[in-house]
Structure formats: structure tokens, C-alpha cells
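Weekly sync notes, structure subgroup
Attendees: PM, AL, DS (notes)

Item 1: joint prediction request from the bench team. They want all two components modeled as one assembly rather than separately. Inputs as received:
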Amino acid sequence: MQKPVVVLGLGNPLMGDEGVGMRIVEILQSEAQSYPNAEFIDAGTGGLSVLHMISGRQKAIVIDCALMGDEPGAVRTFGPDDVKTTKKLAHQSLHEADIIKIIEMAKQLGEGPEEVLFIGIQPESITERIGLSDTLENKTNEYADAVRKALK
Amino acid sequence: MSNTVQTSKDIKVNVNHITRVEGHGNIVVDITDGKVLNCQWQVPEAPRFFEAMIRGRHFDDIQSIVSRICGICSISHSLVAIKAVEDAMDIEVTPQADMLRLLLHYSEQLQSHVLHVGYLVAPDLFNAPSVVPLVAAAPDAVKTIIGAHRIANQWSQLLGGRVTHPITIVPGGFSAIPTEKQLRELQDTLKATVEPLVAIVEVVLSVAGGLPAFERDTEYVSLQQNDPAYTFYHGDIVSTDGHTMPVSKWESVANEYVVEQSTAKWAKWNRDSYAVGSLARFNNNAEHLSPLAKKVAGMFSLEKGCCNPFMNSVAQLVEAAHVVEDAIAIIDTLLTNGLKEEKLSVKPKAGKGSAAIEAPRGILFHSYEFDKNGDCVWGNLCIPTNQNHANIQLDFEKLVPEFMHLGEDGLRKTMEMLVRAYDPCISCSTHMLNVEFVK
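Output from the run, pasted for the record:
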């Protein structure tokens, strides 16, 4: 049976702070027994596959590196209606994806979760590196707390 | 960003997508007084950092790192990396592991192909700017496509342990395999997928008149195996020009070179360019397709020797039918033989190995060298999209004079459709959010 809540960590651990979503999911997976209603998924950069991971859930929490115009390391919790995407897609490749648009599509298809929350984390450096910048690594507990709060 | 300016004989196209990290291809055309002065496919791509990233890593860590190169082709990168590691260390896998891997590989072909046709090609044919407005215009078609994609996702998860970035495939075989009951259920699901797949084919067929009539004689390169099959996984490298090369010498096929207009490397073999992907596989191996796949090809009058690059998307539909039908047959064989738990016993040794696999968007090469402890000392890989760049450029050079009568908007759209037809992989390493707060 599918669990009613899904927590998705998005990003690429080979690209520095781009991998923050997965790092947080990794931390939370170790305490998954405290959240029997929630499934924690390292969703990587699977693009539209996210659609199926959120489909039919009551609540989806998406943790992702986010360019929000904040200081590096800042974290914000927001809903899809709180923001507009400024990401430009070339529509040349399946490999580009905008999670905001995917959520919009899920809603249009009648498959969207009742509640969607983003935990956005402003990166310091997105570069070819395994592991987060020190700025983000030192705040991983704060980010995990934001998810714990969203899970309540 | 897209800028166009038109006078009667002047056309300027500059489709320029530059964001902070993600790379996109740029299309540049300059037609002045009816003469084509410039026509370029420019690809700014990040350096291939992962070749440096794997140095010093243990052989059994390679797969998990390279699977992150791309979320859409993660199964292909994982499988080809494992095959190259096994080649370097003379590790044999059992027929059962080989079949299970092919089954996993097929799931990615279905995922990627239905998504490409539904997400990128169908909006063009329905004159929609992207798939999101298409949901309102053709909701049933989109739902069918999403449904097929969902099944492919579940299929990947069963064999790979998760949807993307698989965790079950390891040097020597699998760390976990499905049960016979699970395989039987998958087979039932795949049998039930044939009908929606045919529905998708019929929807695309109804608008296939929108595929531009454009041809350019091209060398098509793919795998081909001696034991006749429509291969995605085994065999030597062949071209429609009649050339054959063992996989160990793939660098002599790709002959990668640097051009001024692109930071991605380009490739050529026997001509100035070659093409890889579904149409290349079709042109080399079509006679070995499954019955339904042959029927789909027939519906679109797709025949061996086709050199219309826009038909690559049709070849993807043909292959979607093939992988579903062939997977049903493979599961029959696996169940007849009975699934066995296989013990893995892999000891590292020094050596160099290479492998090739047909990723959804074309042939993919990986090579690695390991020291006696099994630590990686060198790696080289070549993705299908890089092998197609020179071919896209040469297509552009023939296409622009033939389609400039469409004017700027028509020409730009045709060129964008051509790029999409190749199903390129040019912005796959990062997918971050980019938002402004409105509340």
C-alpha cells in the first residue's frame, strides 16, 4: 500500500549543493520509523518520474536546491502558489525539468496531492563535486528540522 | 529567449537558451538577401567532469556514481559501466543475470521513448507550446502516455530497486532479484500495456502529417549482434555503410574532435558525421523487430533505409512496442528456466575494459582502467548526443535552404523540431528550482 505522505529529495550529488535534497532525505531515512505514514525517496534527477511518485498521495514534501535570491544556505518552506517559476526551458530535451510545472501538470491531470510543500535551499556552489559546500553541510540539521516540521 | 527579425529575403534566427548551469543547444541562422550566410548548431556543455570524478574510486562504486550523470539515462549508464568493469576484470555473468539486465534496460527504453514522444514531439504535432497546455487540449492522449510511463517506472523499480539510479545491479550480476510471482505480475501488466501503447501510436499517427518531409543520406551507427536480434545490449558496432568495429575499439568509431562552435565534442566515423538512436537501430536491425513493432513501423510506412531524421520519433514508438513484446517473451524464458539466487564472487584485478550499450537516444560507450586493488585509474565515456551533434549541423545545412520559404517562425520551428527528434541529452546534470516569491 502506498503511504499517504511522500518526501522527495531532488538533485544530483555529483554537482555540489545541487545534491542537498538527497542529502536531507538520507538523514531522514535513518529515522523513517518515526514517520510510519511517510515514504522517503531519493528521486535524483528523474524528471517527470516525480509525477508518479506524488500521484495519489495526500501530501508531498519536495526538498530541492532552489535559486530564490537569498543568502547561500538559506532555507524556506513554501507552497506552489507562493512562487512563480523563473526557470526557462528550451523544450529541446527530456532532461530538463521544472518541478513547479510538474506539480501543475499533476493537478491538471487530477493526480496531484492535496498538499504540496517545498523545502527550498539556496545553494552556495553548484559545481562538479561530490558533497555539499561547508555552508550547507553545517546546516543540514536545520534543513532536516524544516522537513520534520512539515511532516507534523 | 528567441529572437527573430524578418524582411522579404532576410531571416535571422537566434534561439539562445542560456541559464546559469544548464546547457542548451543554440540555433543560429543568418540569411541575407536570400543567401544562407550562417547556420549553426551550437552546444555549450559542461566539461565531462565525471571522468575525473571516478578516478581513485573502487570498481564497485563506479556504477552508483555514473548513474547520476543523467536521471533519464541512469539505467543505461549503470549497465554500461558494469559491463565495462566486468570486461576489465574478466567477470562472466550468468544467462539469468544477462536476461534480467536486458529486462531492466528495456524498462528505460519504454520510459524514455513514451515520454519523448509524448512530452516533446506530440506538442509540436498538436501545435502546443509544451506538454502542459497539451493536457487541456488532449487530456486522454496525455493520460494514456503518462499511464504507459508509470508502468515503465514500476518496471524499472522492480528490476533496479528504484525508478532512477538503480541499486540492484553490481559487477557479476544482481544484489537482489525479483520473485517469480513479481515477474508474473509484471508480465500481466505488460500484456495489458499493449492496448494503450497502440492507442498512443494511433494518436501520433493521426498527426504524423506534421512531421517534415526532409531527407539526407546519412550513416547510421548502432550495435548489431551475430545471434540475430534487435539488440540494445550485445554485439559489435556497425554502420549502414557496411562497416563493423568491435566495442573495444569504440574510440576509432567516435573519433571525437573539438569544433569552435561547441564545447561538446563531436564525432565522425566514415563520413563527416553519423547518427545514432532509434532510427539508426531500426536501419541496421529492423528485420529482427517483434511482430507488433513491425506492424507499428508499417502503419507509418517506416522502412529500412529511411533517412528522414524526424522519423526517429516514429522509430521510438516502434521500439516501445518491441521492448514490451520482447520483455513478455523474456519473462516466459526466465519463468520456464526457474529463477535461481546466484552467489556473487568477484575479486578485483588490474585491467582495462570497454562496453557499449544502446541508451534510448543511441549507442553509449564507457571504458575504464583499474589497478590491482580494483581502484579506477582512468575512464572515458562517450554519450550518444555528442555523436549526433555533427549530424544535426549537417542536417541544418541541408534543411535551411529547403525550408527557408516557411519564413522565420516556420524555419525556426522546423529546426527546433529537428533537434528534438534527436532526443538530445544536454541539460541532464542539474534540475534545481528557480523561483520568485509572489506572496
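Discussion: Residues 1-8, 17-22 of chain B have pLDDT under 50 and may be disordered.
Action: AL to compare against the crosslinking data before next sync.
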